[in-house]
Design goal:
4 copies of one chain form a homotetramer. With about 300 residues, chain A is of the alpha/beta class. Chain A is built from 12 helices and 10 strands. In chain A, the strands form 2 sheets. In chain A, strands 1-10-9-8-7-6-5-4 form an 8-stranded parallel β-sheet. The first copy, chain A, has a two-stranded antiparallel sheet with strand order 2-3. In chain A, β6, α4 and β7 form a beta-alpha-beta unit. Chain A is globular and about 50 Å long. The model of chain A has no long low-confidence stretch (mean pLDDT about 95). Chains A and D meet through α7, α8 and α10 of A and α7, α8 and α10 of D.
Chain lengths: ~300, ~300, ~300, ~300
């Protein structure tokens, strides 16, 4: 686990049976589906995993079972983002004990911290971490970014091992790569799957892509083509990823359509249940039928 | 406690000794300071109380001790806003057992719910509540508003008893009043203290105003003047509230300056400590000195 | 005209016959309708007047005819906001020659100027003005505000005579009043009509309210009640204004619904045509029918 | 001129001697500098050209002189974006008469049009155009985007020839490419230069990049490497572009720093004056000295 992460690390959906119970068998199938798809790691309790919407009890159960199922075959990253410092530390410690390999931290998402406040926050938190930490830039949901200057300062913080950027801002991403060039052991990963091809072609190390839950092989192959600088093949696979995203994420009218679409698809594929944590609810039959047809068109379902 | 709330209900700061310990004596002094100042209730774990930044353990301790100290003399409202449904329910039940009288709910603040999703969320949550619930509109920090249509639907939800509006949007506030006119037992309260005068002059029922931590009597008198429709006196007291807010909330450069200023002032007044929960830190000596001078100018400190 | 403006100054809609021709008779009727309604001035080429959407030729024609029709009975204010400095100056000079009494300036609305840039801009522009100038704060459409510090600096700029605030932010408005208290010859006016009551009750000088196009008398009476500190009457009239705004501005689905609603109403009242400047188009028959019914309900149409 | 545009088309700065006079010799030198640098066209009156900040007289003078100097050697594109429909049409006609080859239209930037309103607007405007039109997506300054659905509809509008996207949103850009694949005669160009490499690697047709004013050859070579799918060379040149942008655009504190930096650099290179149109002003000596040093470091100045 001491090598830097490279490749596709799916942000796992959190399979639920109802409001506060895990779909245990579904989680196990999902982990197997992803590892067999060739992924380089598993990221639990991220945005796609509805992490902040789960009770603390459920979060811990999910971490424990995911680590157990992964059984050391691939690294397990755990999202520890929280508005309460102590709770982030608590979950990080629990995750280390459960066998996770990395933690992932987005800014606290109630109060927006100003840049100097954020720097102090990260410094204080990193010093309490039992595992290597990824900074997770997600301004669309946390209101604020980790500024490039903070990332530059983080180069000297023991325990920080890279950045996941879900800002959709590729200028920011290229600046991250400039900064991270000084640390070969860092990983700079991109969030939205539509941007993984260019991110890797221009020096990034992989993607934390929601759609990889559904079709891990496609994302892994796209990563490999880009990492091998096979531009022609990368473009073909990027077109397929664009098609999958365009098909599955546009069924609902709200922003929640992405996670709902992935979970609905996984349910149709027989992998796990599609119960959503509040404030969301799973797709009703009409939307489910559209997802079914699109999975057929995409060749993922017969 | 069955009467609708009217008047000033301060959102208590959370007195801390360090990252995860309550300044118990400070909390007790604060509660006494406020009750002696004539307030109509106490609101704990709101935004001014840095609720989302506290560990769950600390939140429960604070609820318990605040209720104990209030000892039934005034209602105690508890903020139960959370990104996880089950945790909101857990804290509401704990609060009811501890002697709180109301709970206060802002939208979950990680994923922004679209209006129909929010309606379902509120319906589901209200049905689990052991205490009357206030809707707390705070779009600046939760990204989304409770739309007026949702509030209209909430008129028929047993257990909803009013709205606290911190949007700073007085058009929205007037629409709330139109809706709430049908329910004499509801309370429509305003957040920012600079707006309490006009809110009450035009039909609102009071304010949940951070500055009342420092000087409860001023806010209570302003409320009483406005409720009595004494316009001349209301304007005088409103000018004083504007002066206090302008003096104390503008010392720091960041948005956190408001809470930092209030806590620093309370520390200078000898009421409680000014430790801040992460991601913030208390004012350093330079800012503290400015706050001291301004409290002197305001006549709150010699 | 040397007295400070007090009262209701409607932002006139711009009556159009088609894309680039004025409905001259409609404009004349509108001016008469407003003056007979007791307004304290006329504001042309504001937001409600779709000023930025009109060709320069048409803007000048409208200024000229409005001034001619007003014939000195009330002040005429002209919006000179432009992204090009020289064009603002040109229109100000034209307006002075045509008999206008004041000009009104919002920030240039393509490039957002930072506070020090804005200060230089206002200083440079004011020095070229042939008429007293109002600062027009409209961040929703110009992206940036005139900061309170800039307004404070403007106290010493010869030629600035007040502020119109359409930010909907009453805290900002109260800070404006604090600043303007030093200049009895200034006017601090509020934009959205839903806020005029409280603005005047707490020290403001009047309103530039779109709905006054339709029913000037209502707005004038509300202003007079508030200025006379008759709180009971102010509340009654404020409720009527809320009702009118709630009825007429909510028919279309887009933000343009306000101007479309006012123009449609004026057309139904027989005052002027309702052609809209691009990028908007007048209401179709279905929406027009709803507006008709609501005007009947409001007692403005039989 | 009937071939689709491919390559680098710099958005020319507008060389000014003072508020309302063109630096004619500077413009001529700039045009020669760019054509000798190998650019595929010239775009005047864009954002970098401070188009909306210039008087109408000056805009026409600039169009006329740029076309005369270009003398048919490369296409000349003219920004006709305006808040007034008729003025866009007027400038388009003037440009056609002056010898321009294309016009470029961003959404009207005062009133934000909703999608159906924008569609009508574009349809109406396109039908009046004497030249092929590019849609220019620039939501950061115009508040609204041309939605992908509108672009899809524009495939069937005679006279539309492509899109320039300055949204910085590469997911949007990839969706544009999917749509435009049906029209080989369209050009899909990207705004920010930091994104041109990936845009072209994945199927885009070129860039409208501000930095190309300073160093056209670098941008043209980067385009050519990317168009030739030479990934290694593209990465080297992209790194140089990132370096130039990082050096020149970060001197001022405000958003205006980009245009100020480019103009200041051009002045130091002896190409044209650096007077800025209001609301901006040129860099003072301190910033100019920093730009000078950075140009030396970049090898552009000795």
């Amino acid at each position: 686990m001491s090598q830097p992460l490279r490749g596709i690390i799916p942000p796992l959906v959190s399979p639920l049976r109802d409001r506060d119970s895990l779909d245990v068998a579904g989680l196990e199938r999902l982990v197997e589906h992803l590892i067999q798809g060739g992924v380089s790691g598993l990221f639990v309790l991220g945005t796609t995993g509805e992490g902040p919407s789960l009770s603390y009890r459920l979060r811990r159960e999910l971490v424990e079972r995911a680590c157990k199922q992964a059984a050391g075959r691939v690294p397990v990253l755990v999202g520890i983002t929280d508005t309460a410092f102590t709770e982030s530390v608590n979950l990080a410690r629990f995750s280390a004990d459960a066998g996770a390999t990395h933690v992932v931290l987005a800014p606290p998402y109630y109060f927006p911290a100003a840049p100097p406040e954020m720097l102090e926050y990260v410094q204080d938190l990193v010093s309490e971490m039992p595992l290597p930490l990824f900074l997770y830039n997600m301004p669309g949901l946390t209101k604020v970014s980790f500024e490039i200057d903070l990332v530059r300062r983080a180069l000297d913080m023991p325990g920080v091992c890279g950045v996941k950027d879900s800002s959709c801002d590729m200028i920011y991403f290229h600046r991250l790569l400039e900064v991270a060039r000084q640390r070969e052991d860092w990983s700079v990963l991109v969030g939205p799957e539509e941007l993984t091809a260019e991110a890797v072609l221009l020096g990034g190390h992989g993607g934390i892509n929601g759609g990889a839950n559904l079709h891990p092989k496609l994302y892994v192959e796209m990563y490999q083509a880009a990492a091998a600088q096979d531009l022609k093949r990368t473009r073909e696979l990027h077109a397929q990823v664009m098609q999958l995203a365009g098909a599955i994420y546009t069924v609902g009218r709200h922003k929640s359509a992405i996670i709902k679409g992935i979970k609905c698809g996984l349910s149709l594929l027989g992998i796990c249940e599609d119960h959503m944590a509040e404030p969301f609810h799973r797709f009703r039959d009409a939307e489910r039928e559209i997802i079914r047809e699109r999975l057929v068109t995409l060749g993922l379902l017969r």
